[in-house]
What does this fold into?
Amino acid sequence: MANIETFIGMDFGTDSVRALLVSREGEILASHVHDYARWAEKRHCDAARGMFRQHPLDYLEGMEAVLRGVLAGQDAAAVKGIAVDTTSSTPCAVDSTGRPLALEPEFADDPDAMFLLWKDHSAQEEADRINAVAAAWPQTDFRMYEGGTYSAEWFWSKLLYVLRRNEKVRRAAASFMEHGDWITAELTGETRLDKIIRSRCHAGHKAMWHESWGGLPPEEFLTSIDPLLVGWRQRLFTTTETADKPVGTLSLKWADKLGLSTNVVIGGNGIDCHFGAVGAQIAPGTLVKVMGTSTCDILVSPSITHCIRGICGQTDGSVIPGMVGMEAGQAAFGDVYAWFKSLLGYAGPVALAQLEADAAALPPGEGGVFALDWFNGRRTPDANNALKGALFGLNLGTTAPMVFRALIESTLFGSRAIIERFQEERIPVNAITAAGGISRKSPLVMQTCADVLNMAVKTTGTEQTCALGGAMFASVAAGTFPNVETAMQHMGSGYGTTYLPDKKRHTTYEALYRRYRRIGQLIEQHPEA
It folds into this structure.
């Protein structure tokens, strides 16, 4: 083992952090998962208000645990690179040393001093203000590369929310950092704000960063949104880098903790689903669906000459350097299923397996039960966080499996709406690859996906596809492979199950999907009803 080169990919998800140790030939040598302790207790969260905060100690403790876990019994000298992905946009206020404010005793229990998780919708008022100013701004719509609508889930909305509502944090904050930028800075030990390398992926998709207008939107635009934003453009960043570029080497602090060399290269970071797309060996025309608590739908193209309406952004180099990366997705997917199971009090693998088995035994649309999947608003197409989920057609004969199947069908109807938007925008979708936990745990969801979309859906060969993508980026940053495409060829895990569409079920779903679109449009037009 001493003569091989290995790489570590870390994937910071909503509930846990995962790590893989992978050889340059693609052999997965070790994996480890650590659940966030504070998050498991739902500290600093209020789901009814759309508030979801995560403490930086969860991330630090989780990172040390998974790195120790994947290195146990392995050859530490063979490790050449580490790269991480995180959820996005998940920003936090930091002090002048790049330290999250929640790590200081006076802010330890202040939710506004913690990371605002991707699905935090507290900042809807701020998003509305950003959209109003952007829509009226002459010449340039700074949302044009982010689907044309700015979301409460994204960087500027959350930053402004904190500045407006927490004077103590506002006075203490020197800057704001995305989770991924902070973690890579922490690993390298280079936390000086003017030296930290910021991710092209996070900035381009979530912070209205674009080279054509010199980076972040201009000061005049930002201060028109709110005078509290005066000077914040200068306190953030101007340049960004793609994730294949090294950001430094492992600090002495972390090298000593882990028994690694300070020569280990730390690669750039990116959004979890973008790394997952690389781990799934994405190519032009292939849609990679990363299916978890939410979904992220990723495409790449060598070139795009227009802005795509209603998605989560298009950024040069955000997935594969040299190509345009496109992101869409659903704000709730697995979260919808988890909500229903919790509502019914289903607990334990036996009860959950029985619920899915009973739902799978039903034909499509059984009992006339029908659902809208907007339980956490709608991310794509056309972001609208104010929308709510809904159930229709209930009667005294409705059973739990009927409702569960209807919820699954509704989430896949949402997936179809995303694909149709790409097709309307002249972006071909010729194949589908599914990654993420649900793609491996729920045959019912995957078969319904194939039936609704009327396309074959193949799953990836490893459950930890995002972490595998991180290992691939680490190999490029360390100089083992010249580019991401070569790393994918050498380190890809192949594919698992392929789900083929059933024509009869698809015919039924055609009618149900038309109903989904029709009822959805009516409710969106008349929310008071």
Q: What stands out?
A: The longest helix spans residues 400-424.
